[in-house]
Specification:
1 helix, rod-shaped, mainly alpha
Length: 113
C-alpha cells in the first residue's frame, strides 16, 4: 500500500503540474488573443484613416486635373489671340511701310515739280 500511496502522491503531483501548465497555456492564449484583438482594432482604425486620406488625395488630384485643363485652355486661347494680334500688327507694319514709301515718292515728285 505504501508503494501505491507513493505512486498516488506522485500521480497527484504530476496531475497538479499538468493542470498548472494547462492554466498557464490558457492564460497565455487569452493574453495573446487580447493583444491580437487590440492590434486588429488599431489596424482597422489605421485602414479607415488611410482610406480617408486616399479619398482626400483623389479629390485634390481631380481638382489639379481640372485646374490644369482650365489653365491649358486659357493658355491656348491666349496663344490664339496673340497670334491674331501679331498677324494684325505685321499687316499694319506692312501697310505703314507702303504708306511711307508712297509719301516719300510723292515728296520726291513734289520737289521736282
Amino acid at each position: 500500500f505504501r508503494a501505491l500511496d507513493k505512486d498516488g502522491l506522485d500521480l497527484a503531483a504530476s496531475n497538479e503540474k499538468v493542470v498548472l501548465s494547462a492554466k498557464q497555456v490558457m492564460s497565455n492564449i487569452q493574453s495573446t488573443n487580447y493583444r491580437l484583438s487590440e492590434k486588429a482594432t488599431l489596424l482597422r482604425s489605421n485602414d479607415a484613416r488611410a482610406s480617408e486620406a486616399m479619398a482626400t488625395t483623389m479629390k485634390v488630384l481631380e481638382e489639379v486635373v481640372a485646374s490644369s485643363k482650365s489653365h491649358q485652355q486659357l493658355t491656348n486661347d491666349f496663344s490664339s489671340k496673340s497670334l491674331v494680334l501679331i498677324t494684325d500688327i505685321k499687316q499694319l507694319d506692312t501697310d505703314s511701310m507702303e504708306i511711307s514709301e508712297k509719301i516719300a515718292q510723292e515728296g520726291k515728285i513734289c520737289m521736282t515739280s
